[in-house]
Specification:
Layout lengths: L1 H8 L2 H12 L3 H27 L4 H11 L2 H12 L3 H26 L3 E2 L2 H22 L10 H6 L1 H20 L14 H24 L1 H8 L3 H13 L1 H12 L3 H26 L13 H18 L3 E2 L1 H21 L5
Antiparallel strand pairs: 1-2
Helix pairs in contact: 1-3, 2-3, 2-10, 3-4, 3-10, 3-11, 4-9, 5-6, 5-10, 5-14, 6-12, 6-13, 6-14, 6-15, 6-16, 7-9, 7-14, 7-15, 9-14, 12-16, 13-14, 15-16
Length: 345
């Protein structure tokens, strides 16, 4: 049923584009429609990537996943950079990390069967997030004085971004080299050509819908009385990760808690050490490059999430009460985000 709804939901993308070009409804309506349309598009990107991986070795499949698995977040962030919305960029990426670690992993523990977890690999991914928190803290300190968006601070962000990216790529290459050679793809698998075409179309559509989403964000924030920061770090972050979130929770419900945990925690690490550095480096193609000037509440949220996940993983077992703890912690942080308001206000 869920797959049928996602397939049907793909029709929302062209509908959203037509409405934006021909009808010009309110920005608030366009934000809501674009947010919903992004969910099946994110699922299609993941589905096409998985299907393409059936025809490749583990190394290429891993690179495909790293390149396209977080494509919606990357595209949303770059469009926000082009619209000079740095706080939206940083908020949405931090929100992606926090929601994966607390909300998705917590829901997986809550809905899945209690049992042992692959502690070693999950601790490695959690450790990567911890490294990101430390590096981003050091990069953020200069931004606590003066204009946090000044170009000199953007230049100082290049080094930390490259450092995080190199660490992620090294760990990823080591991980995919341990994989076994793929078996023959199942008969039901898409052809490589079909997979790549679907991936390309879904990515282009995601870019278009993301542009509509970002352009309507300010009007939506005013209409509903929420800060842009809250919308970015909670709503946009969840929308950009909706397909992965839903997939991980369904997998956990189907008694594969380990895979669900891998998806949730690895995705969080990927955003922190791949998507964020790539967005930072690519932002120099725009007039106002991104600075790694995070707010204390953003770094504190990432640090708290990392510590809580590490505590849950320490004994190598997943329990439902731990899932309740993680989800409740996410709700608590969301409340803190609500009262934090926008920067400088």
């Amino acid at each position: 049923m869920a797959r049928r709804l996602l397939w049907a939901g793909l029709a929302l993308a062209p509908l959203t584009i037509v409405l934006d070009l021909a009808v010009h409804p309110s920005k608030t309506a366009m934000f809501v429609l674009a947010a919903i349309a992004l969910i099946p598009l994110a699922w299609m990107i993941g589905e096409a990537t998985e299907q393409a991986g059936e025809h490749t070795g583990p190394r290429i499949a891993g690179l495909l996943n790293a390149s396209f698995g977080n494509a919606p977040e990357l595209i949303i962030a770059l469009i926000a950079v082009s619209d000079t919305l740095p706080n939206v960029v940083r908020g949405s990426l931090v929100g992606s990390v926090v929601s994966n670690l607390l909300l998705v992993f917590g829901a997986a523990l809550l809905l899945g069967d209690e049992g042992r977890l692959e502690r070693r690999s999950l601790i490695v991914q959690t450790g990567l997030v911890a490294i990101a928190v430390v590096v981003l803290l050091l990069a953020t300190i200069p931004g606590w004085h003066g204009n946090p968006e000044r170009h000199s601070l953007a230049d100082l962000s290049i080094g930390p971004a490259i450092f995080l990216l190199v660490i992620y790529l090294v760990i990823t290459v080591i991980g995919v080299r341990r994989g076994e050679r793929p078996e023959a793809p199942p008969e039901a698998a898409w052809s490589m050509r079909t997979s790549l075409i679907a991936l390309g179309i879904a990515t282009v559509a995601t870019a278009w819908i993301s542009e509509i989403l970002v352009h309507s964000l300010e009007a939506f924030a005013r209409a509903v009385g929420l800060s842009e920061f809250f919308i970015a770090i909670v709503i946009v972050a969840i929308v950009g990760n909706a397909a992965e979130h839903g997939g991980a929770i369904v997998i956990a419900y189907r008694a594969n808690l380990n895979l669900a945990a891998q998806i949730a925690i690895s995705s969080g690490a990927q955003v922190g050490l791949l998507v964020l550095p790539v967005v930072t480096l690519l932002s120099f193609a725009f007039a106002h490059p991104l600075t790694l000037a995070f707010r204390p509440v953003e770094l504190a949220a990432m640090a708290i999430s990392t510590v809580l996940v590490a505590v849950v993983l320490w004994d190598g077992r997943g329990r439902r009460w731990e899932g309740v703890l993680l989800v409740a912690s996410y709700v608590g942080l969301a409340v803190a985000f609500y009262f934090s308001g926008d920067r400088g206000r």
